Amino acid sequence: MIHLVSDIHLQAEGPETVGLFGRYLSGQARRAKALYILGDLFEYWPGDDCLDDPDSFESRICGRLRQLAEGGTAIFFLAGNRDFLAGGRFAAASGARLLAEPHVADIEGRRALLLHGDTLCTDDLKYQAFRRTIRSDNWRTSFLDRPLADRLAEIAALRERSRQEIGEKPADIMDANGEAVAAAFREHGVDRLVHGHTHRLGHHLHVVDGSERQRWVLGDWGRSGNLLACEGDDWRFKTVK
Fold this sequence. Notes:
The protein is an alpha/beta fold. It has a single domain, classed as Purple Acid Phosphatase, chain A, domain 2. The protein contains seven helices and eleven strands. A six-stranded mixed β-sheet has the order 4-3-2-1-10-11. Strands 5-6-7-9-8 form a five-stranded mixed β-sheet, covered by helices on one side. Helix 1 (about 15-25) links the parallel strand 1 (about 1-5) and strand 2. The chain is globular, with a radius of gyration of 18 Å. The mean pLDDT is about 95.
């Protein structure tokens, strides 16, 4: 069995979700041969030097993930818009293998395209421009050169600005664009796509060039969570609580 999750948004200020994720790692996750995390595991990741403190929140979460990996569950991590700065030290601390986006994986014998999902939201032009900026090498280098405290302050400001902008945007532009979805199916030659980001849990059927394709959208976590469990041809959402 393979599990796929996304948008858990772990942060020290959210103890209910942290506890839920801990219970998942020590319970349901141990029955999976592989766990794919499709981004936004953390509410934010300021850089791998947050692991300098072995008692930091991030270090403790990575330690729990490593326990799962050492127990035999392979962990794969594809970064989201909140934790795209996670790098080699995160991988070493957590036991996760970092995946570049987009990634085509063998999920129980089926080729599936894995994305975080924000690249599909092409109607949100302002967000896409912002994404291109912060994913550039120049921005990343400049940001990570700043002291950790300065980075954390900047992240807090960005999060507040994001909350305000989301409240002002029409809901439909923050969802996956149908043409972008069809283009992704065509480009990668797959009939299954799994992503998160939109927080809109659902299973959608698309007809692309006369063929039926399946899109599985992972939801976000709060007091309860969700995952996509794949065992052979049996793919279904399950609740984490």
